[in-house]
Design goal:
This protein starts with about 35 loop residues before the first helix and ends with a strand. It has about 900 residues and is α+β, with helices and mostly antiparallel strands. The chain has a six-stranded antiparallel β-sheet with strand order 12-11-10-15-14-13, with helices on both faces. Strands 17, 18, 19, 20, 23 and 24 form a six-stranded mixed β-sheet that branches.
């Protein structure tokens, strides 16, 4: 087992000693801050690790150079011997097989023939000698003539036997290589011997010349190696900061002591899961045995999960493992990511206390997040019930397992709460759907002992840690409370919804899944959450009240039903805006002579001001229409009225002007089949012909009401029977996502798809064609035209002669008989007699009489005078002045309307 310094039971680490700066100043030019001579001096002296490395590398280079030279010399010597043998053998065999050699050996004086030839061959081949001898070894030739006839020095027996002899000898001329070969005659008999030899110095001259070059190259290599070694040594000297072996040893001991002193465990696990190193903190955290090193981690008694992680060597970052009673955060990285040895390094950190602190911090952070979410997530709409639902859904399951909100009924309707009355469950949210708590919509009257009743009475929150031990809560409903307890709900917080001095209801938070009951800190959090929600609920309540008031006002100002008339078949729709109350309005006004006026208007904006302004304009139109004015004149009067309203309100309180008010006024005459239209800044009407064609007639566009300065113009539209006239406000054809042209195209498409449809079906088709709920109010009127044909109209021209009155009465009597209206003869004759007599007496001719049979019987007398008759009460002594009084008594309605050529006095009688 390897014992490391600093471990319990081992040798304590040696003292590290004083720092280097305290041992005296360094010599100039030494260390990392000195110049290059200091570096080389330090390297040469070998006092540091860098110097020792430098010397070792230089010695290694020198040994390599010496080995190279020796190897070269040995190779040269071997090559020289080999070359000498080859050359001697080649020369000897060539000379022995030369023509005439065997014959010359049989001559009485072989020397005379062979000596010149042997010398010539020796000089030509560069060998040192060529000796020809007989089989006894007596020389016939030799470079030195004195040795001819003497015995050859060397081995000749193998050659005499027909072989070849190669020898290395040292002769008088130095070390040499000589070869002896046989000379054979034609029969293969050895008749003599030839020996050739050469000294090795003559052969190795070229190799000897290469040796200086080799030495020079070695010197250059030594110089380069020395320079490179010096550079490496200098860098090593910088990295080790000039530390010597002793200092390096002390540094290792110091680092080892630090390794065992840190408060973080360190493990080094090698290949195969074997533990190579564990510091003291790792021993403490993992409770490792003393002989843990060199054993596999699976044998150290760790839990399976931790042991598997250490043995796997996989990457781990802050993995928390329960080791004994500690929570240990483990970080692990493999060591072979960049070519290092196989294994892993693991660090351990005791996070037990940190985990507890972080847990409390996490709880605080979650509560802050919940309060923030309550600020931005509760009150997104101005609806009381939805705001209560937002509170309930926010806290489940982050704070409670179930949440309920109970509000007074008056609060749900926008009124102030009335204490003592029952509450209604407005919202309920939970982790399960089968909870036995009161459902949404249930009316609840809490008993006085219940936590909710105490909270409503005192205005304080109530914490019930254990519902099973709360008899006051159980007294509310014994059967239901038993079901709640059996369901698992065990703790409750009840918080009153307070907005100023008003208590709007209570919010209840129930806990079932978490075994711990609610505590005081959670009660404080519940108070904060409910306080924020109560403000939003109160705002929604106030908005509901104001909205209800505005809607009530608006509905009271709009027509509740359409008046009876026979000229048009009418259907209408009114869609309020998504938010607030708008100023769109419409009206159907019966006029004299079976005519009908259609009105559509729009006051831009929302709220009570727009609704009130709309009511004023609608009332004004009613009053102006009673004067039977043309559409352009009526809009002119309405424009003056809006201007006066703007001046009065702006001068009074600085209110905004009604510059966004628009209006379209149309009068349809079923007898003439003409519709007269004028508009003030309003979209044009749509006309659907009886054959299904759709068009938008050209109606002059006047300025919006209140601007003044320009007169209004009218357009007359001739309408066939069963034509449909469509009037609408801009909310139908224009919003933020589409312009008016696109809206008109959409409306045209919708109308084109309803050939022959009734007004009611047309309204439904148009609204179904809308892409979504409009953002502005929409008022829509569809009127299908009817025509009073000639069979229901009778006309006469009356001369300006009182005697003509009797003729008119007779003609009328006949016409009533044709219409089966004999019951109206007397009253009709009396009415026409008075009206015609007044026209003859006070008017100007020509005088006309027209009788219309509609839903009433209409009598009209026209003349060219613009003087209007007035109803007055005649005295008992007056002889006249009672005619119009009689007409007013006999007719259901009567009046005067002006025409471009005069006036018409009319009277209506109900049909029997």
């Amino acid at each position: 087992m390897v014992r490391l310094p600093g471990r319990p039971g081992t040798r304590p680490p040696r003292p590290f000693g004083p720092p280097r700066a305290a041992q005296g100043p360094r010599p100039q030019g030494s260390g990392t801050n000195g110049g290059r001579p200091g570096v080389l001096r330090s390297a040469v002296t070998g006092r540091s690790v860098a110097g020792q490395v430098f010397i070792l590398q230089v010695v290694i280079v020198l040994l390599l150079i010496v080995a190279a030279v020796v190897a070269q010399v040995l190779q040269v010597r071997h090559d020289t011997d080999r070359e000498a043998e080859n050359r001697s053998l080649a020369v000897a065999e060539t000379f022995a097989h030369s023509p005439g050699i065997a014959a010359a050996l049989r001559l009485p004086d072989p020397t005379a023939v062979l000596q010149p030839r042997a010398e010539a061959a020796r000089k030509a081949t560069g060998v040192d000698f060529i000796v020809v001898m007989n089989t006894d070894g007596i020389r016939y030739t030799h470079p030195n003539p004195d040795r001819i006839g003497k015995k050859f020095v060397g081995t000749i027996a193998p050659a005499v036997a027909g072989g070849t002899v190669t020898e290395h000898v040292s002769g008088t001329i130095g070390p040499l290589v000589q070869v002896v070969v046989p000379v054979q005659d034609a029969g293969g008999k050895v008749v003599g011997l030839v020996s050739a030899g050469i000294t090795t110095t003559h052969v190795g001259g070229a190799a000897a010349q290469q040796l200086p070059l080799l030495l020079a190259a070695a010197a250059v290599a030594l110089a380069l190696a020395t320079a490179g070694t010096a550079l490496v040594s200098r860098r090593l000297l910088r990295q080790t900061h000039g530390l010597g072996p002793y200092e390096m040893t002390r540094m290792y001991e110091h680092h080892d002591a630090v390794l065992h002193a840190v408060r973080e465990g360190v493990l080094i696990v090698g290949d195969g899961g074997r533990l190579l190193l564990a510091n003291d903190e790792a021993h403490r955290l993992l409770d490792l045995p003393e002989d843990a090193e060199q054993r596999t981690v699976l044998e150290l008694g760790l839990d399976d999960e931790t042991a598997a992680l250490l043995a796997s060597g996989r990457v781990a970052t802050d993995e928390v493992h329960l080791v004994g009673d500690r929570l240990v955060a483990i970080n692990q990285r493999p060591t072979d990511l960049r070519g290092g040895p196989a294994g892993s390094v693991t660090t351990l950190r005791d996070s037990t206390e940190l985990r507890a602190l972080s847990g409390r911090a996490e709880v605080a952070r979650e509560r802050l997040n919940m309060l923030y979410d309550a600020g931005v997530g509760i009150g997104t709409s101005l609806d009381v019930s939805r705001t209560a639902e937002e509170l309930a859904k926010l806290v489940v399951p982050r704070f409670a397992d179930f949440a309920t909100v109970d509000l007074f009924d008056a609060v749900l309707h926008g009124e102030e709460p009335r204490p003592g009355t029952a509450l209604r469950r407005a919202a309920c949210a939970g982790t399960r759907e089968d909870c036995p708590l009161y459902p949404v919509g249930e009316r609840i009257r809490f008993v006085a002992t219940s936590p909710q009743a105490r909270s409503l009475t005192t205005g304080q929150s109530v914490l019930v840690p254990r519902l099973r031990d709360a008899p006051g809560w159980r007294a509310q409903d014994l059967e239901r409370t038993d079901q709640v307890l059996a369901f698992g709900i065990h703790s409750l917080i009840t918080v009153p919804l307070r907005a100023g001095s008003l208590v709007l209801g209570v919010a209840n938070f129930w806990r079932s899944e978490k075994p711990q009951p609610f505590d005081a800190e959670e009660l404080t959090l519940a108070d904060e959450l409910v306080a924020r929600a109560a403000v939003s609920i109160d705002n929604a309540r106030r908005y509901t009240r104001e909205h209800s008031m505005a809607v009530t006002l608006q509905r009271s100002l709009l027509p509740r039903s359409l008046p009876e008339q026979g000229a048009l078949e009418i259907a209408y729709r009114y869609l309020p805006a998504q938010a607030g109350v708008g100023g769109d309005w419409f009206d159907v006004l019966p006029l004299s002579g079976a005519r009908v006026a259609l009105v559509v208007g729009d006051v831009v904006g929302h709220g009570l001001h727009a609704a009130a302004t709309m009511g004023r304009l609608r009332t004004a139109v009613h009053n102006f229409s009673a004067l039977d004015l043309p559409p352009d004149e009526l809009l002119g009067l309405l424009d003056e009225l809006v201007g006066r309203i703007d001046q009065q309100e702006t001068a009074a309180d600085g209110a905004a002007a009604i510059t966004g008010a628009t209006c379209l006024y149309a009068v349809y005459d079923p007898v003439a089949r003409v519709c007269t239209v004028a508009r003030a800044g309003h979209p044009p009407p749509a006309l659907v012909h009886s054959d299904g064609r759709v068009e938008f007639p050209e109606v002059p566009a006047g300025p919006p009401l209140g601007l003044g300065g320009l007169p209004f113009e009218t357009a007359e539209l001739e309408l066939a029977q069963d034509s449909r006239l469509v009037l609408y406000t801009d909310g139908l054809v224009e919003d933020r996502e589409r312009d008016i042209d696109a809206g008109l195209d959409m409306l045209s498409d919708a109308l084109r798809g309803t050939p022959g449809a009734s007004p009611e079906e047309t309204c439904r088709a148009v609204l179904d064609h809308l892409p979504g709920r409009p953002s502005d109010d929409v008022a829509l009127i569809v009127a299908r035209t009817r025509v009073l044909g000639p069979d229901r109209v009778a006309e006469w021209q009356v001369p300006s002669d009182p005697a003509a009155v009797s003729e008119v009465r007779a003609a009328v009597t006949r016409q009533l008989a044709d219409w089966n209206l004999e019951e109206l003869d007397f009253t009709t004759e009396l009415i026409l007699s008075e009206l015609v007599t007044n026209a003859i007496r006070y008017g100007r001719g020509p005088i006309g009489v027209r009788l219309l049979r509609d839903r009433t019987l209409i009598c009209e007398v026209s003349d060219r005078s613009t003087t209007s008759p007035h109803l007055r009460y005649a005295a008992s002594t007056d002889e006249g002045g009672r005619g119009l009084f009689l007409v007013a008594q006999l007719a259901e309605r009567w009046g005067t309307r002006y025409t471009p050529n005069g006036k018409i006095i009319w009277a209506e009688q109900p049909l029997p």
